[in-house]
Amino acid sequence: xxxxxxxxxxxxxxxxxxxxxxxxxxxxxxxxxxxxxxxxxxxxxxxxxxxxxxxxxxxxxxxxxxxxxxxxxxxxxxxxxxxxxxxxxxxxxxxxxxxxxxxxxxxxxxxxxxxxxxxx
Length: 120
Hints:
Elements: E1 11-22, E2 25-40, E3 44-49, E4 53-54, E5 57-58, E6 63-67, H1 79-117
Antiparallel strand pairs: 1-2, 2-3, 3-6, 4-5
């Protein structure tokens, strides 16, 4: 069996942020998601979240294909790979949010200068 071979019924992993209601505000929490391999294809696998599998019944909207070779996947064969991917996504999210925040501050400053120049 090769290293990239996936077995049907085997579990893949991913992480996500889950927002939990705590009184008057929501609190973020890291959540482990387990995915079961449904079918293997030459280039990837069909997977579904374990909580969406009810015997043989799986809603087609809950099935996803993920690559075996790609750096970016929906789920990973080890917890370490899944968590590393999760951290990279969060770091990129912070970079994009900072960029949007800085752009909004710059636009606000331009609008204030416009207001002063035109006596509005």
